[in-house]
């Protein structure tokens, strides 16, 4: 069980870095990066025990394909909050 917890922390730490990159890419109207990240998230969030991150990945990828900046910003904010909350819960 401890191994999974360690893997979850590493996974979430990588998502923290990705959120920062997403924010930078959105400031540059880079929809492609959001689409790629969304695709990755939908594929591996559940693997690490975070199905809600996988669901956000689907939304992120779709919003990027639709070039919906308002929705992308909302999803990135939700992802940021979710990652931080999960890190807090794991470390509690």
UniProtKB/TrEMBL annotation:
GO terms assigned for molecular function: protein kinase activity
Reading the lineage from the top rank, the first entry is Bacteria
Key word DNA repair present: no
Instruction: Identify the residues that the record assigns to the HPt domain, covering every copy.
Output: 1-92
Q: Where are the transmembrane segments?
A: none
Q: Which UniProt keywords are given for this protein, alphabetically ordered? A: Phosphoprotein
Q: Name the Gene Ontology biological process terms.
A: phosphorelay signal transduction system
Kindly give the Pfam families that the UniProt entry links to this protein. Hpt
Residues modified to Phosphohistidine? 39
The protein in question is named: Hpt domain-containing protein
């Amino acid at each position: 069980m401890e191994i999974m917890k360690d893997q979850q922390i590493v996974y979430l730490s990588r998502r923290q870095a990705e959120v920062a990159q997403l924010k930078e890419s959105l400031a540059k109207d880079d929809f492609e990066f959001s689409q790629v990240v969304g695709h990755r998230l939908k594929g591996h969030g559940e693997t690490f025990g975070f199905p809600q991150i996988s669901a956000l990945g689907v939304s992120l990828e779709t919003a990027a394909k639709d070039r919906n900046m308002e929705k992308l910003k909302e999803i990135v904010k939700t992802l940021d909050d979710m990652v931080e909350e999960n890190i807090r819960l794991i470390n509690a």
